[in-house]
Design a protein that fits this description.
The complex is a heterodimer of chains A (258) and B (313). Chain A has 258 residues and is an all-alpha fold. Chain A contains ten helices and no strands. In chain B, the strands form three sheets. A six-stranded mixed sheet of chain B has the order 6-7-8-3-9-10, sandwiched between helices. Chain B has a four-stranded antiparallel sheet with strand order 2-1-4-5, with helices on one face. Chain B has twelve helices and 14 strands. Classes of the chains: A mainly alpha (258), B alpha/beta (313).
Chain lengths: 258, 313
């Protein structure tokens, strides 16, 4: 009988299969992918050319706003990921996966890696367009590497959070609505205007929410503004979100009883 | 005699709703067992417990000798689930779906492509193997679903209502496929609402009603529980039907208020048939049409799951 020797599940091998599955799914729905790409670019042009004139920062507004646009873009990406996971959980294939001897986290790892890949494409596009409209970062290669590293950790954390939201939500629509919060957070941070221009109550929130240290870190690396302890706060937030979401999602995947 | 499924006193509740109230069930290795029941009888809940998808509250449940709760991973190695809603990835093609299963089950690479080709051919998927599953008909989807369950032949195959929603031709095809699988010695636990399906495919039938197994046996044994022949009286109008129902004195009568038919079990002797008809004529309710038939599983099912009708005077 095949149960005599039960091979252990391998998270690495199972996840490879699931990453491939999620990437293929993304590529076979190009309309959704292009919408996700067009949106952040349109937003950046809107901020630089429409609002930029009225918002006063030191130097060109595009130099100020790029980190915020990238995080905004990651927020939209998280919405897509949460909806994709929620949609997947309503699909018959999930019952097959859950009744197979595979690692519980692999389906979610597949979604998360595909989410990071989608974000990498979107972020590259945003950076390319920013350079075209006059963004002139002063950071050298080391600063760029550090910025890319920090962004990857951030996108990984919020992708995993989004996947967990997708597991909790009953429908793709409610999953998407919940992650609207993520896409909204950058507005109440230092992404578009400095914190000292906000009313006191909002300023307190803006200075202590996870988006602000990440934005200040990126801005510091690219534009040479002071980073202070923002870098550690950014990493700390990402670490907590990542570990929490990874543990919750693996449990929810097996426990869910639809 | 070895059993692939051993269930004793299994209970499962959702809140205050008891879905399974002490199920006892055994499936002998290499046989097909049909779990028969109406909607809400607990069939799908039982399958989900045995397939390790949900936990249970009390009793015990073992599949392939392993406890479904404590040794879930070992059980998952031994089973394949073909769900009520075809468990295929719609974005992928048949070949991609099958390859995905082969990878997840760690089939060695050189042999796995040949195995996938083999399964594609066996389940008649060659013409559609490279099209996305979302474009398939219901029957094609079920065949892919079965094929995915057989990439690595399981010790126990679950078929949860495998023909629900299929047209008669696709249904016949699925039946033929399941019969072939059964002949290769796979143990199958099949759930169905259709007695004909159970009759065609199963070695044994267990009738689930109200969260308990109320009958268990071969199709023939179950049919023998309703002895003799059934006398079916058909009526053309509701009033005569009601009169007839009120005047028939046999206790195990079953009736259909929509079709206006009354089924009277008899010992098939001409005298008893004549007696029933004479009674009806005297009561002013002669039937419009009279048929005799051997009891089908449908009759068994009605008798077993509708005690309220039996109690009628």
């Amino acid at each position: 009988m095949s149960t005599a020797t039960t091979p252990r599940a391998s998270l690495v091998l199972d996840s490879q299969v699931m990453v491939r599955r999620s990437l293929v799914t993304t590529l076979r729905n190009p309309e959704a992918f292009f919408t996700a790409l067009a949106l952040p670019v349109a937003l950046m042009l809107l901020f630089v050319y429409v609002f930029g004139g009225a918002l006063s920062t030191d130097g060109a507004y595009v130099d100020y706003v790029v980190p915020g646009i990238i995080l905004l873009c990651a927020g939209f990406g998280a919405g897509t990921t949460a909806a994709a996971v929620a949609h997947d959980m309503t699909n018959g294939i999930i019952d097959r996966f859950r009744s197979m001897p595979i690692a519980a986290g692999s389906v979610i790892v597949g979604h998360v890696v595909a989410s990071v890949a989608r974000n990498a494409v979107a972020t590259t596009l945003v950076i390319g367009v920013a350079l075209l409209v006059g963004w002139r970062p002063s950071g050298g290669p080391v600063a760029w590497l550090a910025a890319i590293g920090a962004l990857t950790v951030f996108v990984l954390a919020i992708s995993w959070l989004a996947a967990t939201v997708g597991l909790i939500a009953r429908t793709p629509e409610s999953a998407n609505a919940f992650t609207m919060v993520l896409a909204f957070l950058p507005y109440v941070s230092t992404a578009f205007v400095p914190a000292d221009t906000l009313p006191p109550a909002l300023r307190g929130f803006a200075e202590n929410q996870p988006m602000t240290p990440m934005i200040e870190t990126l801005r510091g690396l690219w534009m040479g503004t002071p980073i202070g302890d923002h870098g550690w706060w950014a990493l700390g937030w990402c670490g907590v979100i990542l570990v929490g979401a990874a543990v919750c999602s693996a449990r929810l995947f097996r426990r869910r009883t639809a | 005699m070895t059993y692939t499924v051993e269930v004793e006193g299994l209970t499962k509740s959702y809140g205050s709703t008891d879905v399974l109230r002490g199920v006892d069930l055994a499936v002998e290795t290499g046989t097909v067992l049909a779990l028969l029941g109406t909607n809400g009888a607990g069939k799908t809940t039982l399958v989900r417990v045995l397939a390790t998808l949900i936990g249970y509250d009390g009793g015990s449940a073992r599949v392939a000798g392993r406890d479904v709760a404590r040794e879930a991973h070992a059980v998952r190695n031994a089973i394949s689930l073909t769900g009520q809603y075809a468990a295929v990835d719609e974005v992928l093609t048949a070949r991609e779906n099958l390859t995905m299963v082969a990878r997840l089950r760690r089939l060695p690479r050189p042999g796995s492509a040949a195995r996938v080709d083999d399964v594609v051919e066996r389940f008649d998927l060659t013409a559609i193997a490279d099209r996305r599953a979302s474009t398939y008909s219901g029957g094609q989807r079920r065949r892919l679903d079965l094929a995915m369950s057989m990439v690595v032949p399981p010790t126990l195959l679950f078929l949860d209502e495998p023909t629900t929603g299929l047209d008669p031709r696709s249904r016949d095809q699925v039946w033929a496929t399941v019969r072939e699988l059964a002949d290769t010695g796979v143990t199958v636990l099949l759930t169905t609402q259709h007695l004909e399906e159970a009759d065609r495919l199963a070695d044994r039938v267990a009738v689930l009603d109200g969260g308990r197994v109320v009958a268990d046996g071969t199709p023939e044994e179950l049919k023998a529980q309703v002895s003799g022949e059934i006398l079916r009286l058909s009526y053309g109008d509701a009033r005569t039907y009601e009169t007839a129902l009120a005047s028939v004195r046999t206790p195990e009568v079953t009736a259909d208020p929509v079709l206006l038919t009354v089924d009277v079990p008899t010992d098939a002797a001409p005298e008893s048939v004549c007696r029933v008809l004479a009674e009806l004529a005297a009561a002013g309710a002669p039937p419009r049409r009279v048929d005799m038939h051997a009891p089908s599983l449908d009759d068994v099912f009605r008798t077993l799951t509708a005690p309220s009708l039996e109690a009628r005077p």
